[in-house]
Amino acid sequence: MTAADRDLVAALRAELAAIDPARECDRIAERAGLEGALSPRDPVVARLAVRLERRGGSSIVGPGGSAARVAGSGAGDAAAAVTFDRATRPEHCRMAYLRGLFLARGSLSLAGGRTHLEFVLGAEEAPALAAWLSAVGLPASWRLRRGRGVVTWKNGETVGLFLRRIGAGAALLELEARQVSRTLRGELNRVLNAESANLQRSVAAAGRQLAAIDQIEADGRLAAQPYVVRLVAEARRETPEATLADLAERLGVHRSAVQRALDRIERLALHGEAPAAALA
């Protein structure tokens, strides 16, 4: 990634880590997502873990008695066991959990203008997380890599939806603006390349046609050609940059007639007299 892309990803992570959930259940869910990153290398995530730890922990009982629980509370319980029942918790708890999971075990890459987000988990966790994400409208693929499970999104729209749902704001808008800009630049380059190629072909064709006109005029064959052929030859000489459509409009004939006349001129220059049916 470029330095600008890395700075944007860092800003997005900092924005997500700065979210302070108002509900206690969301704080517990986010701590559950952070579980496994007890010594995070990212100082932003480290500060988040300390802040959540200081807020303390408790348990919440869900439908049917299911619970998301933090065993113990306070900064001394840095290794407290955190569990989260993804299937029964409400949407806001699920998104808080995913926010913590992304900050602890996720990475976002914008290399080459492509958006790639992945979670690195235990081998047994990856298929379960991928299935759950699909169930909540965020379909993901997973694979094993060096003994670890990797859950991946490579679709920019899905990544954007995920980041929006877990609370990204200003940084996500900047990311989307860059993606739109890259898409537009790519489309513009495609159009310009196509136009440039068409122009080069047109210039080359006009050059061949002018050389052929000069050749058959020099040996007297142009004067013996049908009126339309002589008319098109004269128009081509006067406007070498004109397209076939331009010549047809100028002369008041069909484009196909212009094309046949120019083809006849080139065949005459290369092979001698063209067959009489060439203009039929």
Q: How would you explain this protein's 3D organization?
A:
This protein has 280 residues and is an alpha+beta fold. The chain folds into two domains: 3-168, Endonuclease I-creI, CATH 3.10.28.10; 198-279, no CATH class. It contains ten helices and seven strands. The protein has helices at 3-17, 24-34, 43-54, 91-105, 125-135, 156-165, 170-218, 227-238, 244-251, 255-271; strands at 59-61, 67-70, 82-83, 106-109, 116-121, 141-145, 148-153. It has a four-stranded antiparallel beta sheet. Strands 1-2-3 form a three-stranded antiparallel beta sheet, with helices on one face. A hairpin with a 6-residue loop joins strand 4 and strand 5. Helix 8 packs across helix 10 (255-271) and helix 9 crosses helix 10 (255-271). It is rod-shaped and about 100 Å long.
What fraction of residues sit in β-strands? Answer: 5-15%
Label the CATH architecture of the largest domain: Roll
The spatial strand order of the largest sheet comes to: 4-5-7-6
Number of strands: 7
Question: Helix tally?
Answer: 10
Which fold name corresponds to the CATH topology of the largest domain? Endonuclease I-creI
Gyration radius from CA atoms, angstroms:
34 Å
Count up the domains.
2
The low-confidence parts are 57-81, 274-280
CATH homologous superfamily classification of the largest domain:
Homing endonucleases
Q: The biggest beta sheet, please?
A: 4 strands, antiparallel
Overall residue-averaged pLDDT value: 80
Structural class: alpha+beta
* Element-by-element helix/strand order: HHHEEEHEEHEEHHHHH
Shape type: rod-shaped
Termini Cα gap: 61 Å
State the share of residues found in helices, binned by percent. 55-70%
CATH class of the largest domain: Alpha Beta
